[in-house]
């Protein structure tokens, strides 16, 4: 299950270009099944499609609740693409690779 939260966009840069670095934050809740699947799925996607050009931070909201508040997290698991802009949020276990790639602007 994956749900993309629309963000207001001003100018969309050409995302997904060769060499562009991706900064990703995945918020999870401990070892619950959806969170565990999300971790495995995003690691697989990153290694296959972004190898050598991504940073992935996995944040357990039980251990770091202040970060969840700071990012206004309302659903878990959620992946936040900080860079390249625009920022995107993807909710769910990230099992739909096609939707994740679209959400990361790697394909159109």
From TrEMBL:
Coiled coil: none annotated. Residues 25-106 form the KaiB domain. GO terms for biological process: rhythmic process. This is Circadian clock protein KaiB. The lineage of its organism: Bacteria, Pseudomonadati, Bacteroidota, Cytophagia, Cytophagales.
């Amino acid at each position: 299950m994956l749900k993309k939260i629309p963000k207001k966009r001003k100018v969309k840069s050409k995302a997904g270009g060769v060499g562009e670095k991706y900064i990703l934050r995945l918020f999870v809740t401990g070892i619950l099944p959806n969170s565990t699947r999300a971790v495995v799925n995003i690691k697989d996607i990153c290694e296959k499609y972004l190898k050598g050009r991504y940073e992935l931070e996995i944040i357990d909201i039980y251990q770091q609740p202040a970060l969840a508040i700071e990012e206004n997290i309302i659903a878990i698991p959620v992946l936040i693409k900080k860079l390249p802009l625009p920022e995107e949020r993807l909710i769910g276990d990230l099992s739909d690779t096609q939707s994740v790639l679209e959400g990361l602007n790697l394909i159109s």
